[in-house]
Design goal:
The complex is a heterodimer. Chain A is of the alpha/beta class. Chain A folds into two domains: 2-82, Methyltransferase, Methionine Synthase (B12-binding Domains), Chain A, domain 1, CATH 1.10.1240; 90-208, Rossmann fold. Chain A is built from nine helices and five strands; from the N terminus they run ααααβαβαβαβαβα. Chain B folds into two domains: 10-58, no CATH class; 67-375, Trimethylamine methyltransferase-like (TIM Barrel), CATH 3.20.20.480. Chain B has helices at residues 10-26, 34-43, 58-67, 114-124, 147-158, 172-184, 187-192, 210-221, 242-263, 290-305, 324-340, 359-375, 388-397, 404-413, 426-431, 437-451, 459-475, and strands at 29-31, 46-47, 53-55, 72-75, 81-85, 91-93, 100-102, 109-110, 133-134, 163-165, 196-200, 207-208, 226-230, 233-234, 269-273, 276-277, 311-313, 344-346, 350-351, 356-357. In chain B, the strands form six sheets. Chain B has a five-stranded parallel sheet with strand order 9-10-11-13-15. In chain B, strands 2-3-1-12 form a four-stranded mixed sheet. Chain B has a four-stranded mixed sheet with strand order 8-7-20-19. The two termini of chain B are 46 Å apart. Classes of the chains: A alpha/beta, B alpha/beta.
Chain lengths: 209, 486
């Protein structure tokens, strides 16, 4: 549909005002929110993701597209909830206790939101219990943990263990990342996934949900 | 401000030139070309007992220097400007005339064939930071006697980029010139928009052979630009001191300038060279030696002092593989050349003392060239003053990733290398196959070959080039040319 293609196009160009305007028109024209999401917003952000992976575009282009995605998503969100259409997923995110480095985690948050996920960013230097409690209360799909220091990295193991106790069926998945973290450490800590950068975090979370 | 580096003071440059002129006037130059010697005598040179010994005068040297163009341009086969040899502009061109070719699979040298040369041209045609082609190596599946014109033929057939080339015999000039005229359309158009630079090499010390001196005059007759490439070897056939070698280089180059300008005043010239120190331990001429690079940069300063665009064989390595030594020598040479403002920088792809050419090294060197081209743009303020508003935005947003300032300047302020230079995190590098530099360079080679497409010549010109080449082969007794892929 032409209108949805236009939403996708303007989203790729990072034009949040146009995406906001056209999403409003689409709603008025009676196009279903699911269609607007799938064939307009997600179609556009999917192309952006591929171009970014192929080094055709750079991070600022992705972030602008993410901002435009938000502009559209905010409008259709109440309608999706009304129609009981499940969202992409809910992610609880934060930098672990004792660690105040949050640049990488913030980038992951911006990109996850842009990709259509619900993100609850707990911030930095977050108590382990807070990750677990928030995830249970909010019925999160994934908990994402970040650490920059080798001294704070082991806190991730503690959170993963606590979560397994509270959620023995393993409905809530875990993903970890940060400069000192590797795939081997993620396996050793019992995390469900590891991401080496923000774009990779989105790919990994897609596989988890 | 464009960053620059200098090795010589003005007074040292003037002293070197003065000594070089003295040598040309008092010791003379041997020129093994009787017709040329006789013309030089008419021009004002003194010929003594030995009919090939030519003694110059300050007057004829000065006369020649006055007529050398201070700048000139090269144009691709479609007539678009690709190289502007003036001021401190720099352009890269691959190293020229290797006899060996490094095979990727075996990592051993082999005799290059037509198919290797075509792959090379398809690649260099697409390299962003390499402005022209050179006839980089010598295909061995045609007779030696016309291998020089055959290289130029293949280059012109497969790429529109201008070509740095040269002849192996005096006879080859005719057909090579005809190729260029065919592509450009007429002799006048070729003069107006040069498509090629021919290399003319005196023999150190202070001698011009008949082929190279004839080539120099033939090019001048058609106003085809020439790079004069002297090859003194410090400590062997030139003085061990860098200053002494510079005096010899200056004398040899000035003698070439006189020959060229006497034949046709105004013929474009590159004040070039391929000097080296002589490594007495291995009896080799290391192009990657720091002193070799210093001589190159220094004679470039002398050329600039004389108001002539410059050239040097400098961004290349003596290593046998694409290894750390190759990276060190290419990187250092290209950086110094760029900072010195050498107008035509020859070398990418070349290794093993200019004996061996590698496609993987060529695409790697393209990345080296890209970095240096960024470097010489220097540090210039761009919407940075006053700084308060940008920093207010930074403090409010906590990042500038999607700031207008970032989006406006990111792609020009930061240089983004290609896939050969790995900047991924270790984890991502592992995820993407844990490739070595050599593997990535080879992937790039294969990508460029597979993505090549060129239609820079009309069918008519293409047919005429093939016809000229086939006739040339026949005159040397070779009935057919090796098969060529499209």
């Amino acid at each position: 549909m032409e209108l949805l293609n236009q939403i996708s196009e303007y989203l790729q160009q990072g034009d949040d005002e146009k995406v906001f305007e056209l999403t409003g028109i689409a709603i008025k024209e009676g196009i279903s929110p699911k269609e607007i999401l799938d064939d307009g917003l997600l179609a556009g952000i999917g192309i952006i993701g591929k171009q970014f992976k192929n080094h055709e575009i750079f991070l600022p282009d992705v972030l602008l597209a993410a901002k435009a995605m938000q502009a559209g998503l905010n409008q259709i969100k109440p309608l999706l909830e009304r129609d009981k259409i499940p969202g992409m997923g809910k992610i609880v995110l934060g930098t672990v206790k004792g660690d105040v480095h949050d640049i990488g985690k913030n980038l992951v948050g911006i990109m996850l939101k842009g990709a259509g996920y619900d993100v609850i960013d707990l911030g930095k230097d977050v108590a382990s219990e807070q990750f677990v409690e928030t995830a249970i209360i909010e019925k999160a799909n994934v908990v994402g943990l970040s650490a920059l220091l080798t001294t704070t990295m082991p806190v991730m193991k503690e959170i993963i263990s606590m979560l397994k106790e509270k959620d023995p069926e393993g409905n809530i998945k875990t993903i970890i990342g940060g400069a000192p973290v590797t795939k081997n450490i993620a396996d050793e800590y019992g995390a469900d996934a590891y991401a080496f950068d923000a774009a990779n975090a989105i790919d990994q979370i897609k596989l988890l949900i | 401000m464009r960053p620059t580096v200098k090795f010589l003071s003005k007074s040292l440059i003037e002293q070197i030139i003065s000594e070089a002129k003295d040598i040309l006037c008092k010791l003379g130059v041997k020129i093994e070309n009787p017709e040329l010697v006789s013309k030089l005598a008419d021009y004002g040179a003194r010929i003594e007992n030995d009919a090939s010994k030519v003694f110059f005068t300050n007057e004829i040297i000065e006369r020649a220097l006055k007529s050398v163009p201070k700048s000139f341009q090269l144009f691709d086969s479609s007539g678009n400007e690709t190289n502007n040899f003036s001021g401190n502009n720099i352009h890269y061109t691959p190293g020229s005339s290797a006899i060996n070719f490094l095979d990727y699979e075996s990592q051993d040298i082999k005799q290059p064939l037509t198919k290797d040369y075509i792959r090379y041209v398809k690649i260099v045609d697409q390299l962003k930071y390499i402005a022209s082609q050179s006839t980089a190596f010598i295909p061995t599946d045609v007779q030696d006697k016309f291998a020089d014109s055959y290289r130029l033929f293949l280059s012109l057939l497969y790429s529109g980029k201008p070509v740095v080339t040269g002849t192996f015999t005096a006879e080859s000039f005719e057909v090579m010139k005809n190729f260029l005229v065919t592509v450009r359309g007429s002799k006048e158009a070729l003069k107006e928009k040069p498509l090629s630079v021919f290399t003319a090499c005196p023999t150190s010390p202070l001698k011009w052979g008949d082929v190279s001196s004839q080539n120099l005059t033939d090019c001048a007759r058609y106003s085809i630009p020439v790079e004069i490439v002297c090859m003194p070897m410090a400590g062997f056939i030139s003085p061990v001191t860098l200053t002494g070698t510079l005096i010899q280089h200056t004398a040899e180059t000035l003698s070439g300038i006189v020959i060229s300008q006497m034949t046709n005043p105004g013929t474009p010239i590159l004040y070039g060279g391929s000097p080296a120190i002589f490594d007495i331990r291995y009896e080799t001429t290391p192009m990657g030696a720091v002193e070799t690079m210093m001589i190159d940069c220094a004679y470039n300063e002398i050329g600039k002092y004389l108001g002539i665009p410059t050239q040097a064989y400098i961004a290349l390595s003596d290593s046998k593989f694409l290894d750390a030594q190759a990276g060190l020598e290419d990187g250092m040479g290209a950086t110094l050349a760029a900072l010195s403002g050498i107008n035509n920088i020859s070398g990418p792809g070349m290794m093993d003392f200019e004996n061996c050419f590698s496609l993987e090294k060529l695409v790697f060197d393209n990345e080296v060239c890209g970095k240096t081209l960024r470097m010489i743009k220097g540090i210039e303020p761009k919407d940075d003053f006053p700084a308060i508003s940008l920093f207010t935005e930074l403090l409010e947003e906590e990042h500038l990733l999607i700031s207008k300032h970032t989006r406006k300047h990111l792609r020009t302020e930061h240089h983004f290398p290609g896939s050969i230079i790995n900047r991924a995190s270790r984890s991502r590098w592992i995820e993407e196959g844990s490739t070595t530099l050599l593997q990535r360079a080879h992937s790039e080679v294969e990508r460029l070959v597979s993505e090549y497409s060129s239609s820079h010549l009309t069918d008519e010109v293409r047919k005429e080039l093939i016809n000229l080449m086939e006739q040339e082969a026949k005159t040397h007794g070779q009935g057919s040319l090796p098969e060529r892929e499209v």
